[in-house]
What does this fold into?
Amino acid sequence: MNLPLPVASWQNQLQTAFSSVKELCDYLHISSQHLPLLDDTANFPFKVTHDFAACMEKGNPNDPLFLQVLPVNQEHVETPGYVNDPVGDLEASSGPGIIQKYQGRVLLISTQACAIHCRYCFRRNFPYTDNRISSSQLDGLISELKRRTDIHEVILSGGDPLMLNDHKLQDIFSQIESINHIKRIRIHSRLPIVLPDRITPALLQLFAHSPKQIIMIVHANHANEISNKVKEACHLIKSTGAISYNQSVVLKGINDNVDALQQLSEVLFETGIQPYYLHTLDRAKGTAHFAVADEQAKHLVSQLTRRLPGYMVPRLVREIKDQPHKTPLI
It folds into this structure.
């Protein structure tokens, strides 16, 4: 008899995440009546975890975490240069769920699901239905990777790969681990930041016992996102031998000042996470209100360089389609 798998705490938390702006505003004691809200979020639904909401300042409609998830009517403004596929993911795809832009690495779209819907997301318009790896396709993909001896790193992305349960992740890991020339498994995930309970004992064992080098790329934009629970989860990841880096996006009204960026770098480093990339906004349709001018971004990093040691200053970059690497702006 096959018994259903128990539902983990983090999965229960996903089921009770905020799914409407009014719910979140009520929790934060913010009136939603005067907010410039988007009237229709069907194409990109609202979703916020309780852990992330707990890091927001109650009563503050300009809280930098609140603004990252607030669907506003500016998303409907048509802006030249803002498109559905701003970084050329579809052009770089060689089949469902697999993207290769850079030498020696492939990226797998393992799921379309996320724990939180960040309104500036560069894949908010991505056609996941036609571009994700199904269970039946994974075997064929692994066979292809075995033939591709030029590939040394597999990147699990999405959506968010940690939305997969531990059993599914273990299956993917074991198949990748069977390929001798793959040296590293890289995971791009926001869950250690927005849902730290996802870092389960089983996941930590998966990292610790892997014969491959595990690299965790987390995504935090503001120091207030790094709660004590987040710090504990990230220290546990580090204890497995995994290497952790952070990538941020410079966002108008959220972290476009040197004090915010300095505080973020300092708290990340204290948490065992290396500040790595500060991205300029990927120009996805519906995100133009988050844009920070290049010259302002360069000035911010120049100021940051005066305040922090070099190893704590993230690299300011832009991702440009058809380029063989991220493009440094400084």
